[in-house]
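It would be a great kindness if you could assist me with a short task in structural biology. A protein sequence and the structure tokens that stand for its backbone fold form the material at issue. I should value your view on which stretches of the chain appear to form regular backbone elements. The record follows directly beneath this note.
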Amino acid sequence: MLTTCRRWVALAALWAVLAAGWPPSARAQEPPPGAPGVARVDANESFLHWMARASGKLGWLLLAMSFYLIALIAWMSFEYRRSVAAPPKLVTEVADMVAAKQFTEAYQKVAADPSFLARVLAAGVRKLPSGLPAALRAMELANEDATMGMEHRTTYLATVGTLGPMIGLVGTVYGMIESFRVIATAGASPQASQLAGGISTALFATLEGIAISIPAIYFHAVFRNRIARLSLEVSLAAETLLEGFAPGIRTPHPLATAAIGQRSIAGPNA
């Protein structure tokens, strides 16, 4: 599902880049290169307005990617915190219930909580009747599964960090093509104002692509390190709480376990 979503995002980005870079048919009706005022910048025009006009459709695409990047960073900053992954209130309440021998109530509270710690601890408690090593192994697998899910979300930051310069490069090439087009149609002495349009498009596209890529790559590294730290802290906290559950779980008798194993080997028709 995640791979399919990435493919659709990549195809949509490619389509948008091609649509933004494709020259419209209205350009065939542009005034001749020698006409006054072509590609000139008004002295009263603000820098941001000039930047938006020169960037064109690629600029709007990069602007949409920047909003997507900001939303991702804000969401991960809120979700990937210690207080969310291992709520102190949950740890305290479960520890108090286990100390009071309220094992059933403690497990129900853990199973109903959606936090990272609760998912890992619940997996270990469910496997505790099979022994402590099996419970620790179940918690390890649950920890790896949750960690992998969080790390997969950080790949969207890496995708933005990779696509930003590539889209900027498309704008750079397109702007240079426009400048050489002016040279080819204007003859030997094109005006500088006529070349400025294509050059400004090329430079602004490069600037915007790099401006998106730098924070995306930085926060990708930040959140990967934070996830690794959260995974370790959750593992340590879950093992401590699991030891409190161990006295309240009745382990099956070895003879019963052996009988079940022989029955499974012999098959249902034995």
